[in-house]
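If your schedule permits, I should be very grateful for your opinion on a structural question. I have a record of one protein: its chain in single-letter code and its fold written as discrete structure tokens. Kindly check, if you would, that the fold set down in the tokens agrees with what the sequence suggests. I remain grateful for any guidance, and I place the record below:

***
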Amino acid sequence: MPQPLIHPVLLCGGSGTRLWPLSRKAFPKQFARITGDESLFQQAASRLSGNGFAPPMVITGNDFRFIVTEQLAASEIAPQAILIEPEGRNTAPAALAATLVLAQTDPDALMLVAPSDHVIPDAAAFRAAVSAAAPQALAGDLVTMGITPTHPETGYGYLELAPGARADAGDPQPLARFVEKPDAARAEEMIASGNYLWNAGIFLFTARVLIDAFRALAPDVLTPVEAAVSDAQTDLSFLRLAPVAWDGVPDISIDYAIMEKARNLAVMPYAAGWSDLGGWDAVWQQSGPDDAGNVTSDHATAIDCRDTLLRSETDRIELVGIGLEDILAVATTDAVLIAHKSQAQRVKEAVSALKAKNAAQATQFPTDHRPWGMFESLITGSRFQVKRIVVNPGAALSLQSHHHRSEHWIVVEGTAKVTVDDTVTLVSENQSVYIPLGAVHRMENPGKVPMVLIEVQTGAYLGEDDIIRYDDVYARGQGAKG
């Protein structure tokens, strides 16, 4: 009898700070191209596609929903469903919500729940390990993927194997317990024993088994999540979980809610390479340092450096290091991080410090992704702002007006279809149009290539929330992003 399809569930709502300034609340690391030409999210979706896998389910936050659809479309992957969390409540409610939705059509569906921001270089080996673990999950166990440790890491949780289990086995093994992140001495002891694996936070089970586990071990999570799924509303291609019910959902990980209490546990050892990219030191390691131990991006140069990461995310900044050793240096258009490699885990302290001084760089990017394309702020003054706006082929901004600003648009690439009150015109390259304060207007790209324009805003208030939407193909409602 053939094995049933595995239904991937990609958890995609995190707002990691340990890879600041590249990863921020407005655009977290899973959507960034950190290793390779695809984002970590795209890599995860591709890794869990093809023979043996159903289309993926994705659970994410409201602000990321169009980034998810855009990146999946770029990878030519059609999702089974995209669930929208009203607020992040950790991994237990997210995994359970996806499970309840899938169980509506297939109560015994085989599911693989995985973060979308990990690096797993050997996709074929990982798929083979998942396939080898499937019979154990179908038999009623909660199977977790256990990573063969390469060093005594204090930043990961561990999995203790049951007596007689083998850490190098090619099939699922009995699992004794989940172990919290250890201190350095304890991590050394566990690695020396050979009886522990890293906890990757990747789980395989059937929908029925997980729901039963929540019913027995975490009913306080099950009840409100069931209500949020029952009252969920369809919005375009998304399924919005009911916000009132979701307010009552505890903020708890699936490890704490279920895995640390369950008895039907098994672990699938995996030794073919894995990283959660939990810091810039991990990025340095995964990026393949050269003979001197250096990793440099296209716009970075290392001179007499050793064991150093030099990374510039923009062609506007050439990053040069001279005589550096064990240094991490990362530059974006609006922020620069410089740290000793041994201090990589303290980057989140920098984010907290920036938040305390109300620095926009703590959470926001100069580049803002929207369902129609993107814009970046080039310069801002007391009563003006200049933006570069890119509109995707066939896309359109909302029909809108502003209370506090007027706008000048200059098309520099492609052709824009512009509505200003009752007038509709085509504006080509090197042409411009003026949008008076209060005018009802819209910008569209009727062409087959991206349209680029420069927008000059002038007025007393230039915030993104000064938007009144009259019509929007993306159903965003009112507000800065809707």
About this structure: The chain is about 20% helix and 30% strand. The chain has a mean pLDDT of 93. The radius of gyration is 24 Å.
